[in-house]
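Format notes (please read before filing issues)

Several people have asked whether sequences and structure tokens are stored in separate files. They are not. Every record keeps both together, in the order shown below: the sequence lines, then the token lines. Line labels are part of the format and must not be stripped during preprocessing.
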Amino acid sequence: MRRSAAKAPASTAPQTAAAGAGLPHTAPAAAPDRAPAGPPADPVPRQSLRTEFPFELPRGYVDDAGTVHRDGVMRLSTARDELVPLRDVRVQENPAYLSVVLLGRVIVRLGTLPMVHDGIVENMFASDMAFLQDFYRQINAEGHTRAAVQCPHCTEPFEVELGGSRLGES
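Then the structure lines:
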């Protein structure tokens, strides 16, 4: 006599097939729209920060040998640059000396001088000192003082420097 295989009850067959019981489970493939593990990609390129700014003194610093130094570079000031001079005895005795000490810290190059310090700054002409104080404010506190304008004759757009790049200019 021939026997037929026993049939599974009707109630369990669809569940078994639907649930995939008894079959090995594998992790689904990674979705193509998902990024791989790791740090996220930066969609916007990073901008570099400009920290040094060239300048030209109106008169120029005259060293002991009589050489005139006009071209220089000033860097952005740090909080430390503004705090350290407050402990200086010369600044405590005369608060006006603060700008001399501060400028001596942030001017990184002046002409062919091997080093710039407050002793150099205190021997500058008053017009150069005023220029450097304005330049310091411009790069550290105010950023730039450029404005976009348009030529009234040809309507061509361009930028103008409102603060002036040299002493006496506006």
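For reference, the curators noted about this record: The beta strands are 52-62, 68-75, 107-110, 146-150, 157-161. Residues 59 and 80 are 30 Å apart (CA to CA).
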